[in-house]
## 1
Amino acid sequence: KEKHKILHQLLQNSTSPVDL
Amino acid sequence: PEAADLRALARHLYEAYLKYFPLTKAKARAILSGKNGDNAPFVIHDMKSLMEGEQFINCRQIPIQEHQPQTLSAGLGGVTGVHLGPDCGILGMTNISEQGSADALELRFFHSCQSRSAEGVREVTEFAKSIPGFINLDLNDQVTLLKYGVIEVLIIMMAPLMNKDGTLISYGQIFMTREFLKSLRKPFCQMMEPKFEFSVKFNTLELDDSDMALFLAVIILSGDRPGLLNVKPIEQLQETVLHSLELQLKLNHPDSVQLFAKLLQKMTDLRQIVTDHVHLIQLLKKTEVDMCLHPLLQEIMKDL
């Protein structure tokens, strides 16, 4: 899970903005 | 009733596609053929025009008063990379400091491309989540499907933005010529040429945005990606989308022989393009000391 932290975030947070 | 369900799925994916992807094929083709009114894109065809247009790369809206005077007329025949004046490109530069600033400019441009790609990954992720059943898959499998599918999807999404002479970037506001991309230093110059070759052939299939939406979903739902934990539900989802795509192509392109089969064959070509692309990025990491790869792209490309 740590290896794909941002992908996990993108998948789980549909509305909150993710810092790209 | 089954056909009605397949049509509903096609409509749903088309709506999601329109919602999450800012530049559609319809809009891109209008820009490329010079049919979008007076809004011709800014053309980048050499180092000088890259320098002038750099500040607008990845802007969603180029300020009109700054954009217009620098816009090179695309002509009534649409945007092409020819007849754009003398070449002031990198090959013409001999001065060492000029060469150094050109190198830095290329690297900055590459970083802009990375930012847009990372944003593209976010868009593709939102689109994937809209595929019925996708978010009910094992979360680890969702990650795997995206990791392996997202570059393929981004390459397919690039095709409508390209013609044989160049590509639209910056949400369709800039046209960058193929010749200019080929003139960049190695390995930057090798990055886009395979995508142009693929895209020119892919564009002859003449898919529209509603066909594209289904095709992208089929790519994402590939049950043969390495490390998937639970393949069966993925294959079941893909099977349904494939049926929907087949029906869509029959209705939308009744005279195009074997279009469905031709499209599926493209998926094989795509995998090779992604392998070569990742190889080039790995090469870049070795040759460009100043290069840092975007963390999201690092995640995707690691052990791909």
## 2
Amino acid sequence: TTHISVLAADGSAVSVTSTINHIFGSFVLSRRTGIILNNELEDFCGRANSISAGEQPPSSMAPTILQSKDRKKILVIGGSGGSMITTAIAQSVMNHLWLGKSLKGAISEKVVFVDAQNSVNFEPGFQQSLIEEMRTRGHIIKGREFFLNVVNAVEKEHGCISAFSDYRKKGMAAGY
Amino acid sequence: MGKERRRLVCVCCGLVVAVVAVLLIIVCVSRSKCPGERFSHAAVAADSLRCSNIGRDILLEGGSAVDAAISALLCTALVNPQSMGLGGGAIFTIMDSSGKVKVISSRETVPKNFRQDLLQHCPKTVKLTTGPQWIGVPGELRGYARAHALYGKLPWARLFEPIIKLARDGFPMPEYLAQFLQHKFIKPMVQNSSLCELFCHKNKTVLGVGDTLRYPKLADTLEIIAKQGAEAFYTGQVAQDLIRDVQEAGGQLSLEDLESFEVRVDEARTVLLGEYKMHIPPLPAGGAMISLILNIMHGFGLSPASLQGNQTALTLHRYIEAAKFANGQRMKIKDPHYSPQNVDNMMDSSFADEVRAMIRDHSTHPASFYNITPSTDRFG
């Protein structure tokens, strides 16, 4: 999955998330067209007992635009990483809007992911003392191997634009 | 004559110097207005600098935010082909300059002749699930076309120009893609699939950093779509070629599936979050879960002080608890056109208040408390 955030000079904005689902989707390449096909129907697994033609599978994708009520601040944000999208975006928004971190700091912060079994997974490098503290409060801590969460965002405040693409995918934003 | 020529040269030089000076002043003024790594006018954040730059250049040329997004997406299909491409689907949340927000969803759909026993073949553990039976009807390009029809400024073909050149000329293998290709699980899968035509040397070893990545066949396809429009993918020669390939691989996708694919255009769902309005796409996208977590956390009155001293652990604990309650709602995330159910409460602050009241500051609950239905995690 990938996410792109755009803020144009006229104040319009686009938050778009696109996917072929798993890494290289279905692993089927159309040789005549050069197109790699998705494996999106796998998203029904564990989430549905039956499916119907024309139905869209459930998704964690959430291209989001936040705007202050006075319209002076706008945050265009979204992410990739399957189920990790939810907490990665929530954590970045929380870090930035309420906990006082810069956009870059909010996205770069090590994440905590609560998996489908409700076990808690900390990104490598997360503060160890906090992990121990969570263990004492009764959380089941697991050591997830892959953290594919990526958040890309653009924000405008007081007439200036900050843009940040997640280092985790070696991304970088551009503007003028 | 000589004097006149010298005078002309002097005038021209003066003009060039004046233009350069004006440009320098503009750059300096805009830099000083927004110091540091910030920008004064517009920006694009994509998964690679190459694609962010392509989006930025489209904006500089007078393109709309949607134009820039489409070009950056097409670029990403080449730079991060493991993540997305024309064979997938997308969800756009678009705010116009008046502040009105729409969602354009071209997320893939179930084809007409899907395997009836498909869900019985779901993996029991987290792993890559491959094969043509899992292919959904790709909506990607019809989504771009609809977004461009509603919000585009530059001609459709212009958005494809830099991408076709990139696909044909090639570019250095991106480091992030190379990491995947060299991964111990993914490498043999690529080597034993048709993807090896794109990502392997002739001797079947996968490409690495330092190699050049080219997409000649995709460049041809992009050229057709640039000239003929997205319909070439859904009803034209590209559609026929694509379906032949999928069916030869054993898939059920048909020309009828492509032809009948419908893009959904909706108003965005808007959630009030303190002093912010959060615009998210409707189901089956996952924005409702994010809004629940944020609504719960907002009620705790977060501020920079929430990360001071022992407040840090408390804030983290509350966040984890909020995420557990959100997980408990995950099974409600379904296509509303097929499973009509009211999930408005997930975005309602009173529901968040109820949940918050159930969070204890120094302990957690058993899994059943959170209304969790066991499933596997997704990693797309």
## 3
Amino acid sequence: MNIFRLLGDLSHLASIFILLHKIRTTKSCAGISFRSQALYVLVYLTRYLDLLWGPWLLYNTVMKLFFIGSSVYVLYLMKFDYKPSHDMGLDNFKVEYLIGGSFVMALLFNLAFTFDEVMWSFSLWLESVAILPQLFLLQRTGEAETITTHYIFALGAYRALYIPNWLYRWVMEGRVEFIAVFAGIIQTIVYADFFYVYFTKVIQGQKFELPA
Amino acid sequence: DELADVHDEL
């Protein structure tokens, strides 16, 4: 555990609390992509298969259970409690291509051609693009509530912070997980435009608005 | 080494 990994994980945790806070305080899931949220459930379920057989490190296990539990809970909130506020008409990104493409990448790139390793690789490729339906929804609406942009930023910062973590581990421990690193870099590139607008507008106290 | 086979990140 190094400072970058810890900050990345804390950023991931923060993103979930921000999202739950947004839904509860505004009593609405407007502006949140159900499709992205569903992809995250798939990401965590396929990545944390090792919860079934261990090893169960306390920190990792608690976090894994939290990420699975909270993502399922958000889906539940969106599907039932706050269903009328869901922008279903605009939230129509074709996730089939993301799932299919990630599966092909997982078949091509994996540490071993076993079910759990292919699923682990699949989860990383899928996570790298899972925010696309959310960013697409943002593009369609052209603006976003500030709290929603904080959520997206914290979620993106998690993987961005993992990049210096991987550099640190490569130098200090001689350890590199190439699939995670490549997928993490792709994920950060996917977020690049969003980060740019976030830093140039939201941080300066302006509303998140995309050019028409 | 064996540890390297375990995915220890989130």
## 4
Amino acid sequence: MNIFRFAGDMTHLISILILLLKIYATKSCAGISLKTQELYALVFLTRYLDLFTDYVSLYNSVMKIVFIASSLAIVWCMRRHPLVRRSYDKDLDTFRHQYVVLACFVLALVLHERFTFQEVFWAFSIYLEAVAILPQLVLLQRSGNVDNLTGQYVLFLGAYRGLYIINWIYRYFTEDHFARWIACVSGLIQTALYADFFYYYYLSRIKQDTIMRL
Amino acid sequence: DETENVHDEL
């Protein structure tokens, strides 16, 4: 464990908690893609299949449970909470994410570290996390609604990606056998997609602020 | 070795 990865995990967790608290406090999920949140929950559920079989550390196990619980809590809120679900942009959040799930699974069957049940699902979760932001990006382009996507959410999400890339660079230079190509290449693609999301986010922010001022 | 195969990153 290095400080970059620890900080990356913390900023990732904070970004999820910020979104969950924002939805719960405002009882609204307008502008938030349920499909992206469902993909995130699927990412954690398929990545942490080793929760009960491989013990890395108490921190690792606790964080896995927290990530699974918080991402499922967001999905539950958006699907089941009587007030929140009414504000869901159902007719705008129409990205066909099932094709993305299928494509990632096929890729995981072809490209993985070892052909075992857990490893294929681990690779699947890595690929899926990279593209999970797409429904949210499309919804943002369509709705331009940034009410619930606070600046802090975007800031911590960006910090998570940046810190993880620094973590990989650090591990590459300090550990002799560090070669997590699947995670690194997929993580770089994910960061590029996040940069695109941040670009549209700030465009929407500026547009919304301009309208507010007029 | 076995530890190498376990994914230690979240």
